[in-house]
Amino acid sequence: MNNLSSIRFTAPCAILAALLCVPPIAFADSPASQPPLAILAQPITNVDGQTQAWPEVVMQDGMDAEQQRKVIASLGRRFEDFTKKGINSPIDIPRAVKKSVDGGVFRTYSYFFTVHTSLETLNDENLLTKLFAENKNGEGEGEDLGVVGDDKYSYAHEPELLKRISLSMVLRSNDTKTDASVYAGSIVVAADPENRQQSSWAPLDKPEDKTPYLGMGIYTKATPLVELPDVLFFEAHMVFYEPKAWFRGKNLLGAKLPIMIQDQVRTLRRGVAR
């Protein structure tokens, strides 16, 4: 079994590090009749009440080997290429889906890759808790805000997001396991249960003009391949609302995210290979 206890990764931006960092809380079993994660029970909603549905899982539990191969083929990849071992094995990031809302944009990213490790190692070593950097180790600021039931709350602050805005996020995170996979995810909420921190953004030239922020979340699912049980198929689905005032409609953050994601996945693979 790989020793993963010392893996810590860094991210170039707290927005990514915070969302993709899964908190170290005990996995809970997910009843079949409930969404695998509590955060998936409702769509992503911004402060104006406009919504964007979560992307659906592509690698469903219970698929046989042929069905799993079809999923990978739908990404335009040969099974043998997509599952090969290596730092630079394929990472698929399908084109973002955009939905304009009052000048703002909901951006949706789904990305897919494999990691050569077992589901048992993922559970036993809490690999998902080390998937990406803890926000406090990145360029931003962050803190844990406690656990309520199966949810963990944390705070992340990116002081200079792309040199344009300051972004503060309160994150509600949870994870769970089924008989055949592991899920984990985070969503931005208005405030933590004790209202110690609030989610907001402000332009760098007017830091006093804080505006409440909502509309961002991500979930990840890891599923073993039937033909290769020590190879996990990872899929991650991210949604974020980008107000027009952030970047005046330019796709600056959306263009940067795929590069950041690829760097993080390669770092994960290096850590697992140690």
In CATH terms, what is the fold-level topology?
A: Alpha-D-Glucose-1,6-Bisphosphate, Chain A, domain 4
Mean pLDDT level? 80
Largest sheet: 11 strands, mixed
Number of domains: 1
Assigned CATH class: Alpha Beta
How far the N terminus sits from the C terminus, by CA atoms, comes to 11 Å
The amount of beta strand, in percent, is 25-35%
* Rg, alpha carbons: 18 Å
Q: If classified by CATH, what would the architecture be?
A: 2-Layer Sandwich
Number of helical segments with 4 or more residues: 6
Q: Which residues form runs of ≥5 with pLDDT under 50?
A: 1-14, 22-27, 127-139
> What is the CATH homologous superfamily assignment?
START domain
What structural class do you assign from the helix and strand content? alpha+beta
In N-to-C order, the SSE pattern is: HEEEHHEEHEEEEEEEEHH
Number of strands: 13
Based on CA inertia axes, which overall geometry fits? globular
Helix content: 10-25%
Written description of the protein model:
Keywords: Signal. Residues 1-28 form the signal peptide. This protein has 6 helices and 13 strands. By secondary structure, it is α+β, with helices and mostly antiparallel strands. The chain has a single domain, classed as 2-Layer Sandwich (Alpha-D-Glucose-1,6-Bisphosphate, Chain A, domain 4). The strands form 2 sheets. Strands 1, 4, 5, 6, 7, 8, 9, 10, 11, 12 and 13 form an 11-stranded mixed beta sheet that branches. It has a two-stranded antiparallel ribbon with strand order 2-3.
